[in-house]
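User: tokens in, sequence out, please.
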């Protein structure tokens, strides 16, 4: 077994990021279903407050509460949580100080919102802290004070975080740097240290979602470099919404150069009994040429992604939108590619 294989087996926190429009939330949900297949229990955490997970699974908006959202093949289960900084702070105060009522008063007077606005790093500390606590939590854990009583299996076999976009992911995950100006000692500092210990360990991998377009691919390459520089672990590159190939490589190469046998198309269309064969053939030749040019550009982007030397998986473009059935299909594609 290679070192990479051993690392993959050790990963329990899967952070999913990507440029807006690449289907990051769809991939995170599919990844959670894939990890739960075979009897696992997986927590899917949303941190941006968009309720994208609820829409994908066709459920009511998610509260700040871990609850089952979908079954996976083989008896697995996916739970979901919509994390927000205010609720995370109230839970933090209750766990460590028994001060939930005081925290509610702070919320009523706007103190919590004020604090996370003035010190935005605090928001990231609370959100990452919630996800990493779920990774560490064991069935026998005493929640008060966040202490692990020892023994017992992990509550979740894996945690998947639908994280902020690529342009902000390194800053979001580097909570030690964020908290440095907030507290150098004390509970907040210790809370951030615990989160950072999990984030920097082999238990965590940051997966990048992209599509075969110039800007998302470049952001992926830049984001991977930033994650490496921050001392965090890069997982896989997941190329989403990949178009199906209709022609062999030699045909595509000729079509990209404008060499489409329009006469053969006309003859074929006439043999099929279609009217306006010549006009239709010219239209098809134009579409074929454009398809071939796009395929050539996508091949160049794939070559660029090869340079980052990380495992790569691809998911197909699905027509008609994505819902629970499509999520299971995408999860199966991820499993087929050795997730």
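Assistant: Sequence out:
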């Amino acid at each position: 077994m290679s070192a990479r294989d051993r690392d993959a087996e050790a990963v329990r926190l899967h952070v999913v990021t990507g440029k807006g429009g690449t289907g990051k939330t769809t991939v995170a949900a599919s990844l959670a279903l894939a990890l739960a297949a075979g009897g696992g229990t997986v927590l899917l955490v949303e941190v941006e407050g968009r309720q994208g997970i609820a829409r994908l699974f066709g459920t009511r908006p998610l509260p700040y509460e871990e609850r089952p959202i979908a079954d996976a093949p083989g008896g697995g289960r996916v739970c979901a949580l919509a994390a927000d900084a205010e609720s995370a702070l109230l839970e933090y105060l209750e766990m460590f100080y028994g001060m939930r009522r005081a925290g509610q008063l702070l919320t009523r007077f706007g103190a919590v919102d004020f604090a996370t606005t003035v010190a935005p790093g605090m928001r990231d500390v609370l959100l990452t802290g919630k996800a990493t606590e779920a990774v560490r939590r064991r069935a026998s854990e005493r929640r008060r004070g966040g202490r692990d009583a020892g023994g017992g299996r992990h509550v979740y076999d894996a945690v998947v975080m639908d994280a902020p976009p690529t342009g902000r992911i390194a800053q979001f995950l580097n909570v030690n740097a964020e908290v440095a100006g907030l507290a150098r000692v004390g509970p907040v500092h210790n809370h951030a240290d615990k989160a950072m210990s999990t984030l920097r360990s082999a238990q965590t991998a940051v997966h990048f979602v992209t599509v075969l377009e110039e800007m998302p691919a470049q952001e992926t390459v830049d984001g991977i470099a930033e994650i490496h520089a921050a001392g965090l672990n890069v997982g896989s590159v997941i190329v989403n919404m990949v178009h199906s190939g209709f022609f062999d490589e030699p045909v595509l190469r000729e079509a990209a150069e404008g060499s489409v046998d329009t006469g053969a198309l006309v003859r074929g269309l006439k043999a099929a009994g279609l009217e306006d064969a010549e006009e239709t053939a010219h239209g098809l030749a134009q579409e074929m040429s454009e398809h071939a040019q796009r395929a050539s550009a996508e091949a160049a982007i794939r070559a660029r992604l090869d340079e980052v030397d990380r495992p790569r998986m691809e998911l197909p473009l699905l027509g008609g939108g994505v819902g629970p059935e499509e999520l299971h299909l995408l999860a199966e594609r991820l499993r087929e590619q050795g997730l």
